[in-house]
Amino acid sequence: MYDSAVVRSGLALTVGRVRGFTGAEPSLHTLFLPSTRPSYHELLNLIVVDVMTSRAELITWVNDLLQINYTKIEQCGSGAAYAQIIDSIYQDVPLSRVKMNANQEYEYLNNFKIIQAAFKKHQIDKPVPVTALIKCKMQDNLEFLQWLKKYWDMHYPGGQYDAVARRKGAPADPNPLIAAPAAPKVASNGAARPAKTLGASTGMGARATSRTGTTFGTQKEIENLTTQLEEFKLSMEGLEKERDFYFNKLRDIEILIGARVDSKDGKVSESEMENLKQMQAILYSTEEGFEVPELDAGLVDEEETY
Which CATH number fits domain 55-177: 3.40.50.150, 3.50.50.60, 1.10.357.140, 1.10.418.10? Predict the structure, then answer.
């Protein structure tokens, strides 16, 4: 958990945290710029939502707020939940025109037109990637829902929101777009294969259908996980570059301070020496409970003779 003192100072990440952190977060360059430094509440919100909020927590938040029973982030791709989240803030979205249990692409598009109209009305400066969202892919909808959660945290007026009453009791459990069923197989002579009689073969057909559905779901999950992995790799590469950038700066400072402390010319005053020692103490300090890992003796010798 981030210390409140670090948050107040506008530094959401220490060098140690940057080394070990692997998720998405606001750029350190932005956090260090006074002109763009967010307030305490906004910074805390950025940290909590961007870093700590999991998919399960977001789904729980959506379900609690809207009194629905979503099980996946992808279900938000219908646009119905997004529309009502905006309505929970301003309570002027025409929910009677929102298809809460949309299951066709044209219904999704209609919902997003209503969302875009609400964004324009309230001057919400955020592009809505409709084409990506209506594909009901996890990553696109996760990113948009994370942003919407941050926006909601900053603008929700408070009080109780009666989601069911606002949508006049309309059901809100969508059936996501699924692949169309395959056409029946045709025999070599062009005639359709006859349907099998009921009996033992019925059970076999049911099991085959079950396996097909399971395979489809597993393949989709693999694709989603592969996409997430690529995103994490890119995020890791960026974080490693940022980590090295700041580490090298600290290393240069350490060398300058060390050279001054070890100076033999006798020009270092007692007060300056005290300040230098304090700087070294800050550079070498660690978080409470942190233990410096023991280095292999051979590795140490190799580094010293480099």
Answer: 1.10.418.10
